[in-house]
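Re: weekly structure request thread

Next one in the queue (445 aa):
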Amino acid sequence: MSNISLRDYQQRALNEALSYIHNPEDKSRALMIAPTGAGKSIYIASIANAVDFPIIVLQPSKELLEQNYAKYISYGNEASIYSASLNKKDIGHVTFATIGSIKKEVDIMRAIGVGLVLIDEAHLQTKFKSQTGEFIKALKVKKVIGFTATPIELRNGLNGSYLKMIDKSGFNMFNKIIHVTQVKEIVSNNYWAKIKYETHNVDTSDLRLNSTGAEYTEDSLSAFVNSNKLRFKIVDKVEELRSSGRKSILVFMPSIAEAEILSDSIERSVCITSGTPKKDRDKIVQSFKSQEVDVVINVNILSIGFDHPGLDAIILARPTNSFTIYYQQIGRGVRPHPSKEDVLVVDYSTNVTRFGGIETIEFVETEGKWNMLCGKKVLTEPQVPYYKTPYTSSDTTIWFGKHKGMNIKDVPLSYLKWIYENFENDSLKMDKLLTEIGKLLKLKK
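Done, posted below.
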């Protein structure tokens, strides 16, 4: 194995990962936070290089697998790929895999002594009941490290949706943050391109959240696009960007229909959606990266795993309640490239106003608890109000935990709040409990 030249923060990440890996007393499932462009593939390669037992590296897509694998072998290392979508099913000392393919090979993994699982884009597979969670449980591996730029999830609370750090949830695998590379470290060292924001006033009165409060409905997003005449505005903006010298423009639209209509209205543009055949999708991506095509309009496709440093303009026309989606969209343009001075984010979605500039993101630990800030604004876990009116109408009792057998009206509110925010209504019994707790909490303060 060859030595890997690491930046200061990458060396710190490696040291903290190895401290966790070699500590037999640490039974946690660890999380490493690193922004887009920090080099998570290098984090993974350096860790894989430093351990002497078999490991598995999991990725959510074949594109990310290929990137991580290519980075690892570029240092003169050998590795195997286990992914049906890549037509390769080999297992070795270091195996890069997609979970859908490798999940059935638990017995082989245990037989060869896999001692560590690394999980890229860990925020996409956090739950114990997910494929990855079930795989980790069956494998009985002692050390797990997840990598993500956005260690958060959108949860539903008494007052609607809110952001929660994924290490705080009883349903999530990851329960300890062992490393943070802050965005400001990347920005101060010029590892990110400069971001310019151009925000536009739009009417958001048509937007409606869905029944979970987590995201806007498709109908209201379409109404938003139409009422604000965004198609015409974006057509004009694209021509303006082209005239000003922007060479690579990525547009995010909320629906396939809107994306296709817009593409028909912009000469020499290409549309890519979930309905685009894989072969055509790969061709479009390559044409975009080579700048044969300068405008690509997409719907939820070119976000995670899409690496195009030459991208110098992003148009946001999809309002979202998800910070992760917002971050991933802008994150496509932050990588520096000799052909650009900056990346321009043109916002017709109000997302920039809602969340703030992603270059100001910071993770702060206070009294052992981590929160995500954007500038001075805390984005995770707002306080949930409770009211003082007594509640006496429920005969519901807790059937688990330290208050097992107690009527919920006699259980401490802090414990009920924890249940309400961490358990899912996956059965009629649990649904009734959460409903009654919701009624109770709304009546107390």
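Residues 428-442 form the longest helix (15 residues). Confidence is low (pLDDT under 50) at residues 383-392.
Next request, please.
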